[in-house]
Structure formats: structure tokens, C-alpha cells
Amino acid sequence: MAGEFKIGLALGSGSSRGWAHIGIIKSLAELGINPQIICGTSVGAMVGAAFANGNLDKLEDWARSVTRLDVARFLKLNTSLTGFVNKERFHAFLNDNVASDEVVIEQLTKTYAAISTDLDTGKEVWFTNGLLIQAVWASMALPGLFPAIRHDKRWLVDGGLVNPVPVSVCRALGADIVIAVNLNSDIVGKRVVRSKEVNQQNHHGYAGKFSGLVKEYTNITLFSEEDAEQPPSLLDAIAGSVNITQDRITRSRMAGDPPDILLSPKLSDIGLLELYRANEAIAEGNKSVQRMRAEIDHVLGCVL
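-> C-alpha cells emitted (304 positions)
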């Protein structure tokens, strides 16, 4: 098939919605499409790293097995207020399912880049060499969840703040055709609220409030009319603000540098840390490829 082309895959940010990337990569492979250039932002950087390092099946097995309790175990009380992801547990997860600490980007069989943000200047930072796990960490440092990452005398945070769907990076690295995945296309305007069980709980003290945050992040239901007058929680407001920002940045950047094929899985009902819903996200990733089958055939100029 399109062997003369270098195909780039731009995997966008989107927290737990990122499991859809797995379904997309595998569905493209079934069509004979094996991108040579992989660029990812945030969760897209993580899934892209597993793919480029030959660990996508292992990551998928873990994702499909994770439970709500497993998600809670990734969170811990952090009195420094720099973030509340359990760094040690998350590091072990990356080593088991993405790459060991020794793997460097230059060793990968695919061209790879992870996108991060310089917290001081607001400039985007591309990781195209060096330690793979360090690149993934820097790209995923979502403010409030992960502490900023120190690298080359800079504090780095989530790349979704500047380049949520890194089409431009794929092109800069030599892609002739870019397939982009926007995980947030249907997020804005879909308010989420917490389940009544969580909303009605009264959390006392610092530890109690932290416990409440964990339960809020892992018990999400869609907006209903009877909750219309309820103000959003602090975390809802932060998550909604990040969604709006990334949606607007994505629209602006893709207007100036559109991908050749845009995949937009419908994932608005999956919340920020609902990692235990991988089966749904992966299935929707597969469906998003099938919906664009005719366009994929047209762009690649062949019968798949």
C-alpha cells in the first residue's frame, strides 16, 4: 500500500480518553497502515511510546484489567500540594507497560516525539531524543495531578497546554501524510457532575477532603436536568477549563496546519481519571477508524 509515503500519527491529549488511541492504532494496522512517525501529547505520548517500543499489547492488557480501586491506588495525599499522583506506583506502571528506564528514543524503530510545555516561557518542548520514560513523564505532567518535571534547567508541564494534537511535529519530522487523533472534539458543552452518592458526602479534615477528591474523580455521571442549578465543583471547573483551552488551541492549530485524516472518537462521557473504562474507549477508537474508512482509502490512494 502507501509504502512510498511516510505516514505520521499525531496522538492527542485527553487523560483517560487516551485508551482510544490503542483501538485506533490496532484498527489502522488491520487496514495495513503502520505509521513510521509517532508524535504524542500527554496520554498520547504514553500510548505512542508503548507502540513505538513494542509494548502496545502489554499496555492494552493492563488497561482492560484496571478497576476503579486500581485508579484510587495511583493517588495519594501529597502535603506539598505539587500533585496527588503516586509517583512511585506510576513509575512502576510505566516500566512494566511502556518502557524501562534505560530505553532511549534513538533506539526505537520508529521516529518518536513527545510534546511538553516550558512552564516559564510557555513554549512547546519536543523530546526527540534521550530517555523515553523521561519524555513521557514531561509530556504528562498535568498541573494538579503531576508535579512539574525539571529538565535542562526548565520546569516542564503537560504538552496539551500548547499543542494538544501535534500535527505540526509530525510534519517537521518528515511525515508526508498525517493521521491525527483529537480526543476532545465533543467535550466542550458536555458538563459532567458527580454521582449523588459522592455529592452528598460530607468530608471533614484534610484527609477527608482528599478522599472526596479521589471519589469525585472516579465516580462521574453525565449532566441531568435536576442538577442544572448545582455549581460545578473545583475539580469540575479546572477540568472544564483545561478542556476548553485545549479545544480552542486544537481548533486554531489544525486550522493553520490541518492533518490529512482527522479521527475524532466520541468520548465526552469518559471523565478525567476514569481509566477503568478502557474497553469502551478502545472500542470507540476502533469505531472512529471505521467511520473514516472511505476518507482513509481516498487519502492514501489505494484500496484497503
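Residues 234-256 form the longest helix (23 residues).
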